[in-house]
Amino acid sequence: QVQLVESGGGLVQAGGSLRLSCAISGSTFRVSTMSWHRQAPGKQRELVAFMDNDGSTNYADSVKGRFTISRDNAKNTLYLQMNSLKPEDTAVYYCKLIVGLVDYWGQGTQVTVSS
User: Fold this and answer.
1) What's residue 27's pLDDT?
2) Is the Cβ–Cβ distance between 98 and 32 less than 8 Å?
3) Helix, coil or strand: residue 29
4) DSSP, res 8
5) Which of 22, 23, 55, 102 is close enough to 78 for a disulfide, judged by CB 3.0 to 4.6 Å?
């Protein structure tokens, strides 16, 4: 069983920065991918950033050049550094791990960007 707990969300002005953390616990021996997703009110959940097991990354076009996904294996933590935030980045952000064939999600953390 894997548990994910996000933190780091909050209220920030446009142009500001936040760093989200996803603390990972449990059996992660067979982790294949790690990712961040977000869901704005009235919209579908969307992929924001993705990291494969070999460390390769990919980003949604809307966040390229502004967001960075990273991980600290020693701390069992996944991060999302968000810079130059825009009001349209406002959403609940979720981390996700795929372990074997099972998807695990965190509970989400709210990010609100004011104009």
Assistant:
1) 77
2) yes
3) coil
4) -
5) 22
Which among 25, 11, 17 has a CA at the least distance from the CA of 106? 25
CB atoms within 10 A of CB 64: 10
Q: Identify the residue whose tokens are 């004011």.
A: 114
* Cα-Cα end-to-end distance for the chain: 40
Q: Are 24 and 36 in contact (CB under 8 A)?
A: no
pLDDT tens column, 24-78: 998 777 778 999 999 999 999 999 999 998 899 999 999 999 999 999 989 999 9
d(CA 41, CA 37): 14
**Measured distance CA(44)–CA(113) in Å, rounded:** 19
Structure tokens at 99: 């372990």
